Amino acid sequence: MIPFLLLVVAVLMGVPALLASNRSLKFNSWLGLRISPVTANEDAWAAGHTAAAGRLAAGSAGALAALALCFLTEDLHIVLLVVGLGWALVCTVAAAVAARKAAEPYAD
Predict the structure, then answer these.
(1) Cα 41–Cα 56–Cα 63 angle in degrees, nearest 5
(2) pLDDT at 94 > cutoff 80
(3) Among residues 8, 47, 57, 101, which is most buried (max CB within 10 A)?
(4) Domain total for the chain?
(5) pLDDT for residue 52
(6) Is 86 a domain residue?
(7) Does residue 40 lie in a domain region?
(8) Among the listed residues 36, 89, 97, 33, the one whose alpha carbon sits nearest the alpha carbon of residue 66
(9) What are the pLDDT digits (tens) for 57-83?
(10) Residue 91 has what pLDDT?
């Protein structure tokens, strides 16, 4: 169960990061950061997600690293879950801050 949670977090952060890094994450209602300046219009969406892509990728990489470590040890699954999810949360907050800052000039 714990490896599955880390995999879900890694995918949910990694896919938008990958799509945003090559500016192919289209304005949509189901995938991406949901903060007001970023969702104002398509230009703000693109700018915000491009700025957030690296931080989202870092969060995904951290979750994947914790997942990989789960297979190397049997005793630390809960610790790795907390560390992996904590890192993902920190990266998500950093991504949201960067996205807001980048999107504000484009917001109406």
Answers:
(1) 150
(2) yes
(3) 47
(4) 1
(5) 97
(6) yes
(7) yes
(8) 89
(9) 999 999 999 999 998 988 888 999 999
(10) 98
pTM, full prediction = 0.91
Torsion of CA 54, 85, 10, 41, to 10 degrees: -50
Give Rg (Cα) of the chain. Answer: 15
d(CA 83, CA 34): 24
Q: Are 12 and 59 in contact (CB under 8 A)?
A: no
| 75 domain-assigned | yes
Distance CA(105)–CA(72), nearest Å, equals 46
Residue 54 lies in domain: 2-24+35-103
Cβ neighbours around 108 below 10 Å, total: 7
Residue 9 lies in a domain: yes
CA distance 72 to 1: 16
> Does 20 score more than 90 pLDDT?
yes
